[in-house]
Amino acid sequence: MSIENLDSEWQRAAGIADLAEGEVIAASAGGQRIALYKVEGEVYATHDICTHEHAHLSEGYLDGCEIECPLHQGRFDIRTGKAMCRPVTQALPVYPVKLLGKMCL
What are phi and psi of 44, to 5 degrees? Predict the structure, then answer.
């Protein structure tokens, strides 16, 4: 997925069609790897790397609004970034999402 500068604040991260309901995908925006999620029609974005160990959350298990790290099964709330259980204790960065036409920004 390519990144296009659309204005000074928003960048294309993925096409809406790339993101299925109840799924997570890896994308890039602003030079960072992010994870995009679609839950109940809403799209959320977090940093893709777990705060506990270097693991890609986009390869984890999405259950409702919680993503489970594939390495040690720690979970985060994708809406707030809150660490939900051990071994994760540090919150996950979350990012605003804007839907424009067929794009997730």
Answer: -125, 155
